[in-house]
Amino acid sequence: MISWRKHYKKGLVAIGLLLTTTASVHAQEGDPANGEKLFKTNCSACHTLDKQLVGPALGGVVDRLKKEQNLDTDWLHKWIKDNEALRKSGDKYANEVYEKFNKTAMTPFPNLSDTDINDILAYTSNPPAPAPAAGAAATGTAQDQNSAAALEEAKKQSTNSKILIISLLVIAGLLIWLLMRLRQLVKLNQTEELAELNATRAYSLGDLYKKYHFVGKALLGVLALLAFYGVWNSLMGIGVYKGYKPDQPIYFSHKIHAGENKIDCQMCHSSAKYGKVSEIPSMNVCMNCHRNISEYKGAYMEPGKDKAFYDGEIQKIYAATGWDPESQSYKNKPQPVEWVRIHNMPDFVYFNHAQHVVAGEQAIISSHNKKNPNDQIDVVCKACHGKVDTMNVVQMANDFTMGWCIECHRTTEVDMNNGYNKEYFKNLHEKLKKQYPKTEGKITVDAIGGLECGKCHY
Question: Which superkingdom (predicted)?
C-alpha cells in the first residue's frame, strides 16, 4: 500500500513536470524574431518585458503563469484573442487580472493567429539579443570623424598662428632696427646749430591743432558721428534677442521629437492653430506619451549626451507630474516646472497665431521659399521660428522687430484662392487689381491693411 502511494506521488510530480515542460516547449516552438515584430506592433503600447506599464511585465509570462496559477498557453491564447469573453465565462484568474489593473480592459486581438501568438510568447520567454543600432553606430562614427577632423584643423590653425606671430615679431624687429639706423644718420648729417635748436624746441598739441585745425574739426565730426551711430545701434538692439537659447529645467530636444520622431508641432502647441497665443504645453501633454516611454531607445544621440542623460530627464517629468512608474499611478505630489520663456511679445503689440497659421499658411510658406531658395520650409511655423526640427535647444531664430514684420507684409502675397480671403475680400480684390495693374493680380499683405498701425497696436 505504501509502495503504491509513493509511486502515485512520483507519477503526479512527473505529470506536473511534463505539463510545465510542455508549456515552455509550446512557447518556445514559435519564432522569437517574428514575435518581437508582432510584440512591438501590437503589445508595446501597454507592455514591456521587464516592468509594468499599463499592463504587467510580460517577460517569462508563460513559466510564471504555470508556476503561480497552473495555467498553460491555451489560457493565454484565449486571453489575447478575446479577454472579455474569457472573463464573462467566469474564469477566476481573468477577472482577478481585470480587477487588479483598475478594470482596464485589454484590447482583444482576434486577428492574431495561433502561430502569431506562439511567436509572441516565444519572444517573451526567450527574447533575441538586441542588435547594435546601425544609426547609433553611424552617428558615433560620424562624431568620431568630426572630432578627429576638428582636432586636425585646430592643430593646423595653431601652427599657422605661431608662424604668423613669429613673422610679425621679425618684421617689428626689422622696423625698429631701420628706425634706429635712420636716427643715427640724421644725427650725423645735421649741423651743431640745428642740433642745439632741435634740443630747445617744444612741441605741443595746441600748436598742432592751430596749424591743422581743419583736419582736427573733421576728425571730431567723424568721431561724433561714430559715437551717435553706436548709441543708435545700442538703442535699436534693446529687446532684440536673436540667437537666445536659455537652458530649461527639463531638457527637451526638438530634434528628437519633431525631427527624428516626426511629431507634428500642433500636437503639443495645439492653440497655435486656433488661438492667439501658442501656449507652453502642460506636463499632461508630455505624459500622453511618456506614461509608456520611461527610457530613451532612439538611435540619435546629441554630442556630449548619452542614454543615461535622456533617461534622467524623463524621470524629471515623472517627478513634476507626481507619476509613480511602479504603480502606474499619480501618487506623489506634483511640482511646478519653471520653464524659461523664449518668445515674449510686448503688451502693446497684437499678434494672432491663428490668423497666420490658418489664413496665411500657404502664402507665408510660398513667400518664404521664393525669398530663400536654399532654405525651403514645409511647415508655416518654420518661417518665424526657424527649422525647429533640427534644434536640440530651441533658440530665437529671427529679430522679431517691427521692421522685420513690415518687410514680411510688404513681400508676402495674399493667397487669393484661400476660401476666407476669396469671399471676405472679394470686392477689395477687384479694386486692388485695378489699382496695382503692374502686379498682374498679385496683392501683398500691405495692400489690404498690413501696414496700418491699428492692425498691430491698440
Answer: Bacteria
Count of positions (residues) in the chain: 458
Render pLDDT for 364-400 as a digit per residue (tens, 0 to 9): 999 999 999 999 999 999 999 999 999 999 999 999 9
2-125 belongs to CATH 1.10.760.10: yes
Task: State the DSSP code for 355.
Answer: I
**Three-state secondary structure string covering 369-416:** HHHCCCCCCCCCHHHHHCCHHHCCCCCCCCCCCHHHHHHHHHHCECCC
Instruction: Spell out the domain ranges in the chain.
Output: 2-125, 158-191, 208-238, 283-338, 353-456
Strands 323-324 and 329-330: antiparallel
Could you identify the residue written with the cell 522685420?
404
Compute how many other C-beta atoms are within 10 angstroms of the C-beta atom of residue 231: 10
Beta-bridge partner residues of 444: 413
- DSSP for 65-118, please give it: HHHHH---HHHHHHHHHHHHHHHHTT-HHHHHHHHHTTT-PPPP-TTS-HHHHH
